[in-house]
Amino acid sequence: MKELTDSQVVEMLRQVSKAVIANVDVLTDADLATGDGDHGIGMRRGFEAALEVLVPGLSVQDAFKKTGMAIMSKTGGAAGAVFGTFFRGGASAFADAQTLDAARFANFLALSAQAVSKRGGVEEGAKTMVDAVMPAARAVGAEASDDLLAVFTAAERGALEGVEASKPMIATTGKARSLGERSIGHPDPGAISVSIILGAMKSYAASL
Fold it and tell me: Which residues of the chain have pLDDT under 70?
């Protein structure tokens, strides 16, 4: 599969939203280990709002932008800012595009990774969602394929590797920072969320 149409992108993002909502308990449990346990609830609010704006007729760029705006407005806190930025920050990769292909998606992830890092003021190694976004972007960049399923698979793999890599890290930012070394051994909830998002994209592509 070489590309997704604009209507397929809207449906894919709806499936992404449903996947995040379905995993609210997973995200809550992960956040209870490193924070105050509200990550899952916040993400559910944001992606429920995304479902409301993901309507037929949106362009590829608008679908990503509107998803990001909904998350920013409803998730709340730092998660709303960075996950909203994840979707909005790379949306320019789809400017004037009627389809989503491998090259545009690779550009999207690279731009999103930069935008999230800048918005959160963090680099890799701080035990944040950046630790999943950056390796996902690198994995996609290294995937010399124009097959979307292969690219989405690489993105999910990179994110999951990032989730694992976040376990031994000491949180140096956000709510988990106060835990210090007690955060060691637990994956970052934001990184888990990234893996769910990219995994849902892969599952959608695999279903076509």
Answer: 173-183
